[in-house]
Amino acid sequence: MHFSTVAGLALALGATTAQAGTYCYRTGADFSPWTDRAKYHAERACNGYTVNGKWVNGLFRGDFGSNQKRQTCVDLAAGKSMVIDVQNYAGARAAPRKETCTEIFTALILDCPKGGRNDIADWRYA
What we know:
The chain is of the alpha+beta class and 126 residues long. It has one domain (2-8, 22-51, 61-125). The protein contains two helices and ten strands, in the order E-E-E-E-H-E-E-E-E-H-E-E. The strands form two sheets. Strands 1, 2, 3, 4, 7, 8, 9 and 10 form an eight-stranded antiparallel β-sheet that branches. A two-stranded antiparallel sheet has the order 5-6. Mean pLDDT is 85; it is low at 4-18.
């Protein structure tokens, strides 16, 4: 999970650990004022949403191929955006649990105000 401003992306020049498997970036844009908006977009990417009365699966739903990575960039506010991605490191097709996806991104958003990543089992959430 990376946060950017119009000036450029938040770079991970260093990291700290918030909880096992979680690495918080120490440098870059601070998105604390937009945590609710960030959680909203992460939940939509993990679970899905309705458009014009029709259900749309979130980007991170369904099977991922071996080593497949899916990524999206969403606007949080004027000049502020968030890049989130999920990658399958397993040697076979697999699908992330939507509950796990939402829980991990929520924790990253709340615990890592400059972005971060979580490596758990055969998955990376960033």
